[in-house]
Amino acid sequence: MDKGALAPEGSYIELVVSASKSLIDKSRTEIVDLALAEVREFFPAARAATLLKSTVIKEVHATYSPRPGIDTYRPPQVTPWPRVFLAGDWTATGWPATMEGAVRSGYLAAQALTNAAGLTDKKFLAPDLPASGLMRLFLP
User: Fold this and answer.
1) What does the DSSP assignment read for 79-103?
2) Rounded to an integer, what distance in angstroms lies between the CA atom of residue 51 and that of residue 11?
3) Is the pLDDT of residue 23 over 50?
4) Which of 44, 58, 125, 138 could potentially form a cystine with 107 if both were Cys, beta carbons 3.0 to 4.6 Å apart?
5) How far apart are CA 58 and CA 20, in angstroms?
6) Band of the pLDDT at 106, cuts 50, 70, 90?
7) Of the given ranges (7-16, 67-76, 110-119), which has the lowest mean pLDDT?
8) 53 contacts 60 by C-beta, under 8 angstroms
9) What's the CA gap between 65 and 43, in Å, rounded?
10) Predicted local distance difference test score (pLDDT) of residue 140
11) Positive or negative CA dihedral for 87, 92, 96, 97?
12) Residue 19 φ/ψ region, left for φ over 0, alpha for ψ in the -120 to 50 degree band, beta for the rest
C-alpha cells in the first residue's frame, strides 16, 4: 500500500464524568479545557496531541443520587412467590442504581431462577476484577 494513502496516526478518547454537579454551570470550552488538562496530567504523551473534535453532553439526571440508608429498602431478586424473580437497577445488587447495576441485577435474577430450578452449577455473574493501580488505595 502506498504510504501516502495511509490515514494519519491518531487516537480516539472518550471521557465520562458522572454526578459532577460542579460542571453543570461551566461552558463547553471550560469543560473541554479541564478534561484536556487532566488527560495531559495523567498521560504525558497526550501533551503533544492536537484536539481535532470534541463534544460535551450534559445529562443532569443521568446519575441517581439516593438518600443514605436507602439500600436497606432495595428488594432482592428472590421473592416470596415461586417462579417470580425481580430484576432492575432498583433491586439489591451491591452496586448503584445504574445501567451496570441493572445488568448485574439481570444476572442475579437469572442465577436465582436457575438455583430455584435446581441448576446450582450454572454461574452467570463473573467475579469482580481485582483492584489494580490507584484503585488499590481506595478498596479494602
Assistant:
1) -SSTT-B--STTS--SS-SSHHHHH
2) 10
3) yes
4) 125
5) 10
6) very high
7) 7-16
8) no
9) 31
10) 67
11) positive
12) left
HSE-up (13 A, CA, CB side) for residue 113 = 12
Nearest Cα to Cα of residue 9 among 55, 48, 54: 48
Per-residue cell: 64: 441517581
pTM given for the model = 0.58
Does 73 or 16 have the greater pLDDT score?
73
- Residue 139 is placed in which grid cell? 478498596
Q: Where are the alpha helices (DSSP H) in the chain?
A: 28-42, 99-116
- pLDDT above 70: percentage of residues in the chain: 90
C-alpha cell at 30: 471550560
| Alpha-carbon distances of 107 from 17, 114, 125, rounded to whole Å | 26, 11, 6
Q: Give the 3-state secondary structure of residue 7.
A: coil
With cell 502506498, the residue in question is: 2
Cα first-last separation, the chain:
52
